[in-house]
Amino acid sequence: MHEYSIAYDIYLTARRCADDYCATAVTIVYVEVGSLSMVNPDQVSFLFEAIAKEDNHPALAKAKLMCETVLPKTSCVCGYTGDEIYVCPVCGALPTVVKGKDVMVTRLEIEVGDDDGNDVKTENMEG
Ligand SMILES: [Zn+2]
Questions:
Q1: pLDDT band at residue 110, thresholds of 50, 70 and 90?
Q2: Looking at the predicted structure, is the pLDDT value of residue 120 above 80?
Q3: Contact in structure between 115 and 47 (CB atoms under 8 Å)
Q4: CA of 90 relative to ligand 1 center, distance in Å
Q5: Domain covering 2-70+101-116: architecture
């Protein structure tokens, strides 16, 4: 099940970040979903919440996924860049997909400490 392993990876990324920053809560996990990844964002969100519930990590109990669909970007050996994924409009070769195939966590919103409650930090990451 493709979506399950993706949701699990996202969950592990969020949990590792929560531990690294001693977060009391991860509130939102921003995820880019490439439109060529063949992944259903609703299903990933659902599975993410199911995994969080089962793992029962206190910082991730309320975490929600925010999925953003990313349109493909391609480049070609001739120098073309754009969104044609099958045929380069300049030279007719098969372009290389540089964006739009992957699913990745881009940012997390977390809460740290209990003094001022809403200290939200963001974390940029890859993969
Ligand atoms: Zn080309």
A1: very high
A2: no
A3: no
A4: 5
A5: 2-Layer Sandwich (3.30)
Examine the pLDDT at 127 and tell me if it is beyond 50.
no
Distance of CA 58 to the CA centre of its chain: 21
Q: How far is the CA of 4 from the centre of ligand 1 (A)?
A: 36
In the chain, domain spans: 2-70+101-116
* Distance of alpha carbon 103 from alpha carbon 33, whole angstroms: 5
In whole angstroms, give the CA distance from residue 3 to residue 39: 6
Q: What separation in Å is there between the alpha carbon of 97 and the centre of ligand 1?
A: 12
- Rounded CA-CA distance 63/20 in Å is 16
CA of 35 to the centre of ligand 1 (A): 22
